[in-house]
Design brief:
CATH topology: hpI Integrase, Chain A
Strand order of the largest sheet: 3-4-5
Structural class: mainly alpha
Largest sheet: 3 strands, antiparallel
Distance between the termini: 39 Å
Strand content: 5-15%
CATH architecture: Orthogonal Bundle
Number of domains: 1
Helix content: 40-55%
């Protein structure tokens, strides 16, 4: 993967390619934390994954967790609870099981995701969960929070980060590409579309022609 990713949603499919993004993502303000927004850009996700690969013997696991959480808009609990029976490597499908009464769905997996998951499956002991700790137990959301915070510092992020910023990053990236709110709602598993509107309301494309004659 490169420093910037392009995301497209076409007939239910989710893709990333290596073209550099030309549009800045929207900015929102959180008054309680010293950061200007609550999401990560594609380039920042890449930097986070690169930091993970360099960090420790579990770098591939951590980088894969980041990739899957970002691509599929997973919450920390959802990526930590992910089990191998939800992953169809041969078919290239991920059965997404949402928490918080969210709507579950089936997402396609891209080539880099499949390669990362196959390597992870080869390198770790057999077990039901995709992402496990050193002791072989499922990764806990609290541990994932600690991993993301530590990697954010190592990657030189200008503000403290947390796992939910990956989910928000997914939503904003798709909205910035002009995908409609209903498709985005289905991808993120929102039961209430009002939870999805935040992404499309701040997408820069909606203002593109305002000053054109």
């Amino acid at each position: 993967m490169t420093n910037s990713s392009t995301v497209t949603l076409d007939e239910g499919l989710f893709f990333m390619d290596s073209r550099a993004g030309s549009e800045a993502a929207p900015t929102i303000v959180n008054s309680t934390v010293a950061r200007t927004r609550e999401y990560l850009t594609g380039a920042e996700v890449e930097a986070l994954m690169a930091a993970a690969r360099k960090s420790s013997r579990y770098g591939h696991r951590d980088a894969t967790m980041i990739l899957i959480a970002y691509r599929h808009g997973l919450r920390a609990s959802e990526v930590c609870d992910l089990q191998w029976h939800q992953v169809e490597l041969a078919a290239g499908l991920l059965h997404v099981r949402r928490s918080k009464r969210g709507t579950s769905s089936v997402h396609p997996l891209q080539g880099d995701e499949l390669r990362a998951l196959r390597r992870l499956q080869r390198e770790q002991p057999p077990g039901p969960h995709v992402f496990v700790s050193e002791r072989g137990a499922p990764m806990a959301p609290k541990s994932f929070h600690a991993v993301i915070a530590r990697l954010g510092e190592r990657a030189g992020m200008p503000f403290p980060i947390h796992p939910h910023m990956l989910r928000h990053g997914c939503g904003y990236e798709l909205a910035n590409k002009g995908h409609d709110t209903r498709a985005l709602q289905a991808w993120l598993g929102h039961r209430n579309i009002q939870h999805t509107v935040r992404y499309t309301e701040l997408a820069p494309d909606r203002f593109r022609d305002f000053w054109r004659g």
